Amino acid sequence: MKSLHIADDLNLPIDVVTEKLAFLGRTGSGKTYAAMKLAELMLEAGAQIVSLDPVGAWHGLRIGGSWTVYIFGGMRGDFPLGPTGGKLMADVVADRGISAVLDISQFLRAEQVRFASDFVERFFQRKKAAPSAVHLFLEECQEFVPQNPGNKEAHMLHHFERAWKLGRNFGIGGSLISQRPQEINKKALNQAGTLFVFNMTGPQERRAIADWTRQAGIDEDIESVLPTLKTGQPHVWSPTFLSTSATVQILPKVTADVSMTPKVGGRTKEQPLTPIDVQKLTAEMAATIEKSKAEDPKELRKQIVALKQEIASMQKAKPEVAKVERVEVSVLTDEDRKLLLASKTVFDQALGVVQFVESHSKKLQLLYERLGKANPPETRLKPGSLNTTSLTSSKKPERLYTDIHSRSRENGNAELGNSGLRRILIALAQYPQGRSSRQVGILAGLSSKSGSFNTYLSKGRSSGWIDGERSLLRITDAGLAVLGEFDPLPQGQELLDYWIAELGDSGAARILRVLAKHYPRALSKEAVGEAAELSHSSGSFNTYLSKLRTLELVEGRGELKASDTLFE
Known about the structure:
Elements: E1 3-7, E2 10-13, E3 20-24, H1 31-44, E4 48-53, E5 70-73, H2 86-96, E6 100-103, H3 109-129, E7 134-138, H4 153-166, E8 172-178, H5 186-191, E9 194-197, H6 203-215, E10 235-238, E11 244-247, H7 278-295, H8 297-316, H9 334-359, H10 361-374, H11 420-430, H12 437-444, H13 451-462, E12 466-467, E13 474-475, H14 477-483, H15 493-503, H16 507-518, E14 523-524, H17 525-531, H18 539-550, E15 554-555, E16 559-562
């Protein structure tokens, strides 16, 4: 069996490719150097490696080495990389089996989160379908598996945790690299079976290592070990995989050390990358791009929307004047004319009632609910009872729900009807990346804390239509099948108009209008409150703002901005 000679007196078996490791140490202690040395050894052994690099240092693997590593993104990339390209890159890496550096150092933080989340979700799915050995290096891993994730980071953390926890079953190993171990998600760090720990002096950093050693059943005095370690000299703890606890010296790398901190007054000479054949991969990527587009639900929804618009425009087009032929018909009697006139009158009245209910459904809903609470059962109004002879009912008022994404369809499972469960499934279908239970409740017009919501959710899970925890619920393929046809969310200006209409005459709608008007500028809460005619320090303002944040329509804390998603 091949072994990887990474340090004096330390050889790693080739199986380390599918193991979980961590390289931890203060800035300049040699942790990235050691991780890149391991990457070199894996490449030399013919293994596949992928580096997710938010600092722009891993392109050094192409300076001096003889192996093929493709660089995507960053200042030295062979190929450009966009924030929305995470899923495509996962397909390319999985389909072609290439080793790659995904340099996201030039992205904004929100763009890094989006790319990383899309990449690891798709990559894990692809590896489950076609397992093979690959090692994923996560530079500054606390950016991807944070201990305290923000709102938009929770989705990313969920997918990394799944890949980190279950990935070894499908050939995925990885290395966590960080100078701040206390900021790494504890569940992820505690799953690492081998630690390369470099010099550390901070009490919080040492405490995080102590927690890991206790979790691993190691009884050693780390306080006396870590501060004494020299640069490039880690202490290796591997109680199970290597059965060792020793201080070693990492051997020199073959490739350039571009991770070194620049010196004051010095200039770093830019070294050329080792040439590789990028033309072949360019041609192969074209096929992957087309395949990804064909399988992307978002792209399919765009096509469906486009087709619907095209059909609508065709229907609105002025028809050709048909040739009029003279046809002899029997003369109508006076009784026939009276009957036709009466039927037209009734039809017009019925149409007017329908239009009235549709245009006032929100207000009618509130009125029905108020009547349901204020009046005894025998005097409650029953929504939908348009016949004037049946305006009273002993039944509890139904919920009028006429949101664009919950319009009833005749196809799908009849068991769903137009129930709350159907509305929940529609909300999840419109957001295939998943929603929290609170977000789903708002989208479906239900309280996520209510017994009805929990009953619907339990039914969806037991039927195999809904998957995930309450922090991130997703619709399954079986759920999409049982749901049948549904209206996708509009895009661009239509999406903004849709949400403003959904929010009705509430303060939340006024806040969203103000922020949309000034997009992409961010405004202070005080400025937003003044423009929306609301007190920015009131409880109502904060309630409206909380709802908008939950729906991810508004971004920011100190200053507020309309979400970029509304203007894509």
